[in-house]
């Protein structure tokens, strides 16, 4: 008795949706308006915004819990336990971070960022980190308090800082204004680069 093995039929290629790794969407928009967005990681700028956003259940949008370093009211309203509670209901944290160009005092930003990192060291999440003009400070905080999945947003670090961020396990979300920089081609492995719109 002979058995002939037929090759398995080729699976039809699947088309994956685009992924926007960092976007800002008004959490008050009706779900019907968000149907064509593709897959989106939607960042919030304050815990108040996150409170409502993380309750939403769009099939292609994941809403994060954040505290933007340029938002004084968000920074003043940051509460560690409230942030922890919101993270329990979301797979992502963002946007958090530091920005020396902000009008928010750096000490206030550092306090919020450190508290957020401490929570994230216990609750692993994808974390979008605003690092504009504060790359060295952000790296110092990540060295002090390592987290599972740091993703640098608006990265302005030079070649050495970029290499250090890669060594710390960082990913980078880039848009057209920063993607042209050589450091992303020479210092960052391609599997550490995510695309974003920041819209």
Fill in the keyword field for this structure.
199 residues, alpha/beta, 3-stranded parallel sheet, disordered N terminus
Q: Describe the largest sheet.
A: 5 strands, parallel
- Major sheet: arrangement of strands: 4-5-6-7-8
Mean pLDDT equals 90
Beta strand %: 15-25%
Number of helices: 8
Order of helices and strands: EEHEHHEHEHEHEHHE
N-C termini distance:
65 Å
Specify the structural class: alpha/beta
- Low-confidence segments, given as residue ranges, are 1-5
Radius of gyration: 19 Å
DSSP summary, beta strand count:
8
List the helices and strands and how they pair.
Blueprint: E1 19-23, E2 39-42, H1 47-53, E3 61-63, H2 72-76, H3 80-87, E4 92-97, H4 106-122, E5 126-130, H5 135-144, E6 149-153, H6 159-167, E7 171-174, H7 176-179, H8 183-186, E8 193-195
Parallel strand pairs: 1-2, 2-3, 4-5, 5-6, 6-7, 7-8
